[in-house]
Amino acid sequence: MTAPTESPVEAGRLSSRQLSWQRRRQAFARGWAEFRRHRSGMVGLGIMVAFVLVALCAPLLASADGLSVTKATGGVLESPSKEFWLGTDESGRSVLTLLIWGSRISLLVGLLATVISMVIGTLIGLLSGYFTGWAGSLLYRFTEWFLVIPFLPLAIILATVLGRSLFNIALVIGITTWPSTALLIRSQTLSIKERPYLERARVLGAGRAHQIGRHILPNVMPMVFANTTLTVAAAILSETTLSFLGLGDPTRVSWGTMLDSAYTVGAITTGSWWFFLPPGLCVVAVVLAFTLIGRALEEVLDPRLRGR
User: Fold this and answer.
1) What one-character-per-residue DSSP string does 24-67 give?
2) How many CB atoms lie within 10 A of CB 165?
3) CATH code for the structural domain at 36-54+88-305
């Protein structure tokens, strides 16, 4: 008996999948090669990877017992020494331990808030750009109305109403930072909607969901990815601001809560620089890293920006 042979239809379908994946790998390779040419982007990527590794390896770098006030072994606001490399806080805990474990909370809240912001902004941007009737106009006006509301008062009100928890802080940041993403995606959707291949899809009977999911969304995703890195930086800065104002999770240590504690105990006036300077520098470094990556990705994904 001869072995069953693959039908021409199945063979052609398999080869089309292979061709699709090959094109994706080639596109990724070209994008990565273009990204590596940006020195600032590579510097930002290196800084980001370093902070991510510190956050993931926090249990190996510092014991979680160092976060407990009852297990503190140092004095009040001790200066840096061989035992405490970055000194201690007002409770005698190692500032280095707080800094390492605080990176987890700051990065987690920043990433979670960015996901919420990107989902809301992309969805509203797609719908407001695709639909030209009253629905699209209503979503657009809603986005504009949300955009002109001052961020900080709205975030403070929402954080006060929802309560002080890790998820609530991420939710507050996410639902107050999506309008800029929505406007960006809306402008891209309006441009893509007028292209010939989308008109051809409508003539062939493609429904609205098919047009949005198979034609418009894949074309706006590069812009979403580039904007995500910039939003992460803004979200981390927002988390630090809210925690500094005392609206963060009181049971978790983050860079923002460290700055709040340093301000409360008067570390600046007493000259205890080791308490407020390290978390402030970490916030600046992470925000700068994501900003550099975002700028580099914008040039890689948008050919019009290359060479400028």
Assistant:
1) HHHHHHHHHHHHHT-HHHHHHHHHHHHHHHHHHTHHHHS-GGGG
2) 15
3) 1.10.3720.10
- The rounded distance, in Å, linking the Cα atoms of 48 and 66 is 25
Rounded CA separation 127/297 (Å): 25
Tell me the backbone φ, ψ of residue 100, rounded to 5 degrees.
-65, -50
**Is-contact 146 179, C-beta < 8 A?**
yes
Per-residue pLDDT of the chain (308 residues; tens, 9 = 90+): 444 544 444 444 546 667 767 777 887 788 788 888 888 989 999 999 999 999 999 999 998 888 888 888 888 888 898 888 999 988 889 999 999 999 999 899 889 999 999 999 999 999 998 887 888 889 999 898 888 888 888 888 888 888 888 888 899 899 888 998 899 899 888 888 888 877 788 777 777 888 888 788 888 887 888 788 888 888 888 888 888 888 888 788 889 889 988 888 888 888 889 999 999 999 999 999 988 988 888 888 765 555 55
pTM exceeding the 0.85 threshold for the entire prediction: no
Q: What b/e string do you get for 103-129 counting C-beta neighbours within 10 Å, with b at 16 or more? A: bbbbbbbbbbbbbbbbebbbebbbbbb
Rounded to 10°, the helix 179-193/95-130 angle is 40
For the chain, first and last CA: distance in Å? 66
Q: Check residue 72 and report its DSSP letter.
A: -
Radius of gyration over every alpha carbon of the chain, rounded to an integer in angstroms: 24
- Could you tell me where the DSSP H helices lie in 216-272? 217-244, 255-264
Nearest to 122 by CA among 29, 194, 219, 35: 219
* H helix or E strand, kind and range, residue 185: helix 179-193
